[in-house]
Amino acid sequence: MVEKVFKNLRWLGHDAFLLRAGGKNIYFDPFQLEPGLPPADIICISHAHYDHCSPADVLTIQQPATLIVTESQAAAKLSGKIMILGPGERREVEGLIIETVWAYNINKQFHPQGNRWLGFILTVDGVRVYHAGDTDYIPEMKDIRADIALLPVSGTYVMTAEEAAQAALAIGPRIAVPMHYGALGEAGEAAALRFAAMLAGKVRVEYGRG
Length: 210
Fold this sequence. Notes:
Elements: H1 2-7, E1 9-13, E2 16-21, E3 24-28, E4 42-44, H2 55-61, E5 67-70, H3 72-75, E6 81-84, E7 90-93, E8 96-102, E9 118-124, E10 127-131, E11 148-152, H4 161-171, E12 175-179, H5 189-199, E13 204-205
Parallel strand pairs: 3-4, 4-5, 5-6, 10-11, 11-12, 12-13
Antiparallel strand pairs: 1-2, 2-3, 7-8, 8-9, 9-10
């Protein structure tokens, strides 16, 4: 089942993904979206920074019934049907389980823990998909269990590739997918390659599936 869910997961660049599951289109952090993408049933937005909470991009996929799941600062920038959550919550939404987890920096100040910004775990057909949001390798990750883990790797604002590899080993997913690279002048594909090399023989890494 992990392979089936993964086949329906598409990286859209930066931290943006589209997951087709249960007949629904679920987006994470839509940003700089290409034209022609399907309308969203659920949009998960990790935090209020412009490259994660982009109202213009949301409008291109939003429909009246679209549910946006996010934190309070991002919610203030958006309109429509919005569910505001903090870290450590769990909701059943249209047959899917959505859990929120912590996402923050520990050695930089771009994403303070006090902002209560989010990562997400979606359970689809028994498969747990973890979108880490913008985060460092934080202590809470030792308690996260996921089959598919989407992890930032660029450094500067988030984990480095080396730290992300440590996070992947702590979480133990079947598949790890690097994100948050190759845009906005940040680290390019070399970061994803370093991440994959450090996990070779330990965790399967897939990347560049745009």
